[in-house]
Amino acid sequence: MQDVLPELVSVSELNRLARGLLERGLPPLWVSGEISNLTVAASGHAYFSLKDKGGQIRAVMFRGRVAGLPFRLREGVQVEAFGQVSLYEARGDYQIQLDRMREAGLGRLFEAFERLKRQLGEEGLFDSARKRPLPAFPRRIGIVSSPSGAALRDVVSTLRRRMPSAQLVLYPTLVQGEAAPAQIVAAITQAALRQEVDVLIVCRGGGSIEDLWAFNDEAVARALAACPIPTISGVGHETDFTIADFVADLRAPTPTGAAEQVCPDRQALLAELAQREQRLRRAMQRLLHSRMQALDALSARLTHPGQRLRQQAQLLQRDQARLASLARSAVQQAGWRLERLAERHARSRPQAAAAQAGLDALAERLRQAMRRQLAQAALHQQHLADRLSALNPQAVLQRGYAIVENRKGQAVRSPDALKQNERVTLRLADGVTQAEIRHPDGGQRQLDL
To answer: Which residue ranges does UniProt annotate as crossing the membrane (predicted)?
Structure first.
């Protein structure tokens, strides 16, 4: 170190070097101790010391971390805190900056809670499929709680107010301490064996995690799971959760909440009943009024059978007269239509002789037109044949001409296209012959056949 640092350093540089050594040399760690000299600044940051019998260290926890603590910081509390050891350079104070904190011993409780929760969850004790609905109108309600606890008084008063007709059965038990789990299991088992209640409330008031620990017991959880009676758990405050909450068929935030969920409110039911009675009364009045109007209408239509027969006879006579009149009118109209149709038929009947004469004239015109068309077609055909004959090379050959073709069968049009001793073909009118090109001294090409 003396080889690297200058001979003289300032206090600030020394504190900075010491801070770096502390932060690099010590990783973040858990420290247990007692809170003392606690000061919470206006900013919300907490400054205190952690001490034990052999020493102490300054500690700081900033506002955001303090707000997230599950308990209130206070003097003399044994805690387990996690943070980074450092040095506050402005004063040269050796301290630990804390990120997390829990009351001493709670770490082991939380680990046990999570371990049992995971185990029972894997066994299916928390599955929603096994949860049973609570009865809508329970006649007898069982309560597993302490006889002297405030939770029981809250539950009873709430049930008496909401459903006075329900009978309450208490299964007394301790709800805190080492003997509490066994007594809670015995109370649940007793209720299950007696089968005298429709629903079972398991409850106690709020407290610390140690106070509620009896409801995190595995035996209590398994007794709740095996209970044939629908169960509701109302343990602690709204933020408290126990294993019993997860196993029970329904979890209530508080004992009072459990009492409110286990049965309907009598006053609300009476109000709803009154509303339904009023709606039914109005519906019956409307129905009676409608029926009375229908009865009045039927009474007005009711007549003596004799009078009714006479009315029907009169109606029958009238209908017969109308029917006869309609029949006569229909026959008359049919006769008129028949006469009109006969006249139209007579007017539209064709004259056979005139039609035949017209047909013969048309046939003669058709024959004449066909003869003219055939004559014109014959003349046109002869004209085309003459043109085709004039264009036929064979006709030219008939007049004594010949076509000279080279070896490729191409017609030779110029003497310059012929070479000495070249074999050519002469195409005549009656056939072909071979010839050979000769160039005498005069320069003119000759054919030797």
So the answer is: none
251 falls in which pLDDT band (50, 70, 90)? very high
Token pair, residue 279, equals 């709606």
**How many whole angstroms separate alpha carbon 188 and alpha carbon 221?**
10
The candidate with the shortest Cα–Cα distance to 126, out of 204, 260, 233, is 233
Euclidean distance between CA atoms 100 and 106, whole angstroms: 13
What is the C-alpha separation between 61 and 64, in angstroms, rounded?
8
Backbone angles phi, psi at 172, to 5 degrees: -70, 145
E strand or H helix at 292, and its extent? Answer: helix 266-301
CB distance 250 to 134 below 8 Å: yes
State how far the Cα of 30 lies from the Cα of 169, in Å rounded to an integer.
48
Residue bearing tokens 């008129």: 336
- Beta carbons of 435 and 447 less than 8 angstroms apart: yes
State pLDDT tens for residues 117-167: 899 999 999 998 999 999 999 999 999 999 998 899 999 999 999 999 899
Q: Are 215 and 244 in contact (CB under 8 A)?
A: yes
The pTM of this model reads: 0.47
Element (H, E) at 93: strand 93-103
Largest CA distance in the chain: 158
Dihedral of CA 407/411/415/416: which sign?
Answer: negative
CA distances, 361 to each of 253, 368, 371 (Å): 115, 11, 16
Q: Are 87 and 15 in contact (CB under 8 A)?
A: yes
Expressed in angstroms, the distance from the first to the final Cα of the chain is 128
Name which of 95-109, 110-124, 287-301, 385-399 the model is least confident about. Answer: 385-399
Residue 1: the pLDDT is: 46
Which residues make Cβ contacts (< 8 Å) with residue 222, sequence separation at least 6?
125
3-class SS at 372?
helix
Place of tokens 């008084």: 153
20, 5 contact by CB (below 8 A): no
CB 369 within 8 A of CB 361: no
Q: Distance (Å, rounded) from C-alpha 385 to C-alpha 444?
A: 41
| CB count in 10 Å sphere of residue 30 | 12
